[in-house]
Write a structure and sequence with these properties.
- This protein has 9 helices and 8 strands.
- The protein is of the alpha+beta class.
- It folds into 2 domains: 113 residues, no CATH class; 172 residues, Reverse transcriptase/Diguanylate cyclase domain (Alpha-Beta Plaits).
- Strand 2 and strand 3 form a beta hairpin.
- The relative contact order is 0.11.
Length: 308
């Protein structure tokens, strides 16, 4: 039985998605313009040094659009290379022409493969394999950016600290594999409940932390309670065995703060650490009430009985 992630990997925020789309559009325009420019120069000169310039838009396409983009741009470069040199249309190829065609294909495919490997390594370096959420290193970087944005916008940033209630009892009764699958299930539920632009991380065995930009205390409380209720309402399947509703629950600690003028004297990372410590202290207060509770800052509250 695998305990690695089988759910969705951590997703980019909507802001990152929009920026990525803009970058891809810009890269696509640059690739097309580059191909046309080199084609015009090749047609005018027929020089090998000019023909090597096809590698520039080809490499950009492979880096931006992956294997398919690299191969398709290579094929376009080969077509343009033939159109710019009419003797090739009547199969007047010399040995250098075959080398050039092979290089077009090779550069496109190899660049795309190296780019894909780099992206895969980056994903492995920033993702928790069990849950698909960010790992601690990646989360700390994201939280520092959110703090920086909060400072610039004078908007609140919320941090939620969570852990799974009574996981040791589940491990003792059903084995550690069931416990690992319970943690994975909670991680997937957290990911499904996150608002746009929020970032979630598993930083310990069954401990999670969530950061939500532009989120007031009341908004953070709603996010926390949505996660808590979704976990409590889940019917998990652990080690192939269906478990009833209310098998799993989480405790949640919440803090929301606008980084004020005093924040200018501290680094973004230091402020992020302080927010996490405050949320962790609130989680400790939630745990005093037992399972399935949320505590906001130093004010603890219990969910209504009917929801339990």
């Amino acid at each position: 039985m695998r305990v690695t992630t089988r759910g969705p990997r951590s997703q980019p925020s909507s802001v990152e998605t929009r920026a990525s789309k803009r970058s891809m559009w810009a890269a696509g325009i640059a690739v097309i313009a580059g191909l046309l420019l080199v084609f015009a120069l090749d047609q005018a000169t027929g020089a090998a040094t000019v023909q090597h310039l096809y590698y520039l838009p080809l490499t950009l396409a492979a880096i931006t659009f992956g294997f398919r983009g690299g191969v398709m741009t290579s094929l376009v470069a080969i077509v343009f290379y033939h159109l710019a040199n009419p003797r090739l249309l009547s199969f007047g190829h010399e040995h250098w022409d075959f080398v050039q065609v092979a290089l077009f294909l090779g550069v496109g495919m190899i660049t795309a493969k190296l780019t894909e490997d780099r992206r895969r390594l980056h994903l492995l370096a920033t993702t928790d394999d069990l849950t698909g959420l960010h790992n601690l290193r990646s989360f700390e970087d994201k939280l520092a950016r959110l703090v920086r944005a909060s400072r610039a916008e004078k908007s609140p940033v919320a941090v939620l600290a969570l852990d799974v209630d009574h996981l040791k009892s589940l491990n003792d009764a059903h084995g550690h594999l069931a416990g690992a699958e319970a943690v994975r299930t909670v991680g997937h539920i957290i990911a499904e409940c996150l608002p746009d632009d929020a970032v979630a991380c598993r930083y310990g065995g069954d401990e999670f932390v969530v950061a939500v930009p532009r989120c007031s205390e009341s908004g953070a409380r709603r996010v926390a309670d949505d996660i808590r209720q979704a976990v409590f309402d889940a019917s998990p399947v652990l080690t192939g065995v269906p478990f009833p509703v209310r098998t799993l629950s989480v405790g949640v600690g919440v803090v929301s703060q606008v980084v004020g003028a005093d924040g200018a004297r501290r680094s973004d990372a230091a402020i992020g650490e302080e927010l996490f410590c405050a949320a962790d202290a609130a989680l400790y207060q939630a745990k005093k009430y037992g399972r399935n509770h949320v505590s906001v800052s130093e004010e603890a509250f219990r969910p209504s009985r009917e929801r339990k």
